[in-house]
Amino acid sequence: MKKTQLILAALIGLVLISSCKKDDTDPKPDNMKSITVNFSGLEDLGGDFVYEGWLIVNGSPVSTGTFTVNASGMPSKTSFELNADDVDMATKFVLSIEPKNDADPGPAATKILAGDFNGNTASLDISPVGDFSGAAGKYILATPTNGGETDENSGIWFLDLATGTPTTGLMLPELPDGLKYEGWVVVEGKQVTTGTFTMAAATDMADPYSGMEPLPDVNGPDGFFPGEDFLVNAPSGLSFPTDIAGGTAVISIEPSPDNSPMPFTLKPLVQGIPASAVDHMVYEMGQNLNFPKGTVSR
Fold first, then answer.
1. C-beta separation of 285 from 272 below 8 A
2. Which of 53-62, 118-127, 209-218 bottoms out in mean pLDDT, i.e. has the lowest?
3. What is the pLDDT of residues 261-290, one digit of tens each?
4. How many CA atoms lie within 13 A of 28 on its CB side?
5. pLDDT surpasses 80 at 169
6. DSSP the chain
7. Confidence bin at 9 (pLDDT 50/70/90)
8. pLDDT confidence of 220, banded at 50, 70, 90?
9. Phi and psi (nearest 5°) for 47?
10. How far apart are CA 115 and CA 118, in angstroms?
């Protein structure tokens, strides 16, 4: 009789243990649901920044989690498990760039992709950044800060001289907070900044390579126009003054704060500088609207 009782007790214990152990094949709890993201054109943000997704639920942002992108553009994570009610009620998805160690629970101002849900899918584009269908640019080669008409092909200024007087050369939409424009010249294979700016009819925010002469004051209190003379302090591997004819002129859109000293993936205007370019001749830039995009499925 004692032996039978011991066997029964052991069997009951096994049943209880088995009932408490989670079955790996159990479905997700009813209050959880996954979303799947798919992106193209995103770039590696380095070690200090990450991408973060947000669902807009009843007008408020709900984080879907952070991820990184490697040098090949592959996200570190593409599926995120969230509260099912938030997923079902979301009307929009937004992608932002955030500091890696971020104490702020809300989204940063730097939002680069977004899209409204249509059924269970949202198609993402750069609508938070702006509409660049009408983007256009003009520039001249000149070096106004060297005090003389020498080395004129060693500077670029994003302006138009068609009227004989310098006027705005860049037609670009105003950027939201968290983003800035930056000019670049690719010379001898190296990308050299001309400075960041928020206004196309004002002096940009840096002149690390310009000479000592002040820029002409043709725009009233806003100064001159975005651009740079490449006369001093040449980066490693380059020698200034130089001749940028045959290089490439670029206008990029940069996160602010910036994740890298190199151009960001958003480059609405790109144009090769003619090898035969001469100073004070107006040259046009071309659109480059191959921007990042994505989809979100729930």
1. no
2. 209-218
3. 999 999 999 999 999 999 999 999 999 999
4. 10
5. yes
6. -HHHHHHHHHHHHHHHHHHHSPPTTSPPPTTEEEEEEEEES-----SSEEEEEEEEETTEEEEEEEE-B-TTS-BS--EEEEEHHHHHH--EEEEEEEESS---SSPPS-EEEEEEEETTEEEEBSTTT---TT-EEEEEE--GGGSSSSSGGGEEE-EE-TTSS-EE-EE-PPPPTTEEEEEEEEETTEEEEEEEES-TTS--S--TT--SSPPP--SGGG-S-SEEE--SSPPTT--SS---TTSEEEEEEEESS-S-SSPPSEEEEEEEPPTT--TT--EEEEE-----EEEEE-
7. very low
8. low
9. -85, -10
10. 9
- Tokens coding 169: 């050369």
> How far, in Å, CA of 194 to CA of 249, rounded?
10
User: What is the rounded CA–CA span in Å between residue 166 and residue 174?
Assistant: 21
User: Whose structure tokens read 């983007």?
Assistant: 135
Place of tokens 């043709």: 218
Token pair belonging to 201: 């009819």
Inform me whether the pLDDT recorded for 230 exceeds 70.
Answer: yes
Q: Considering the domain 32-128, what is its CATH architecture?
A: Sandwich (2.60)
Task: Locate CATH 2.60.40 in the chain.
Answer: 32-128
Average pLDDT in the chain: 91
Residue carrying structure tokens 């010249």 = 185
pTM: 0.88
**Does residue 194 contact residue 227 with C-beta atoms inside 8 Å?**
yes
